[in-house]
Amino acid sequence: MSKLSFIAFCIEHYADHVHQSGPEIYQLFKDEGLLQLLRDDYDDLHGMGIEFMIDFCSNYLKERPKTCMP
To answer: 61 near 54, Cβ under 8 Å?
Structure first.
């Protein structure tokens, strides 16, 4: 699986899980740095199952400090 396919896989399955659209989740992942993390850690993550990846993304987003928006 290519990095692009893996990231699309994560976005679409997470979007399904949280009942949001793929573009909304793409933007969320991008804004929160998760998109870059999925790219950077592709070698370690791409073999994990979908349940693990949904938990991984959920936990990352919960634990990530929220930045103040002006």
So the answer is: no
* Residue 5: per-residue pLDDT: 94
Please give the residue range of the domain that contains residue 16. Answer: 3-63
Mean pLDDT, residues 2-17: 95
Phi-psi category of residue 2: left, alpha or beta, with phi > 0 → left and psi -120 to 50 → alpha: beta
pLDDT digit string, tens, across residues 29-43: 999 999 999 999 999
CA 26 to chain centre: 8
Question: What is the domain count for the chain?
Answer: 1
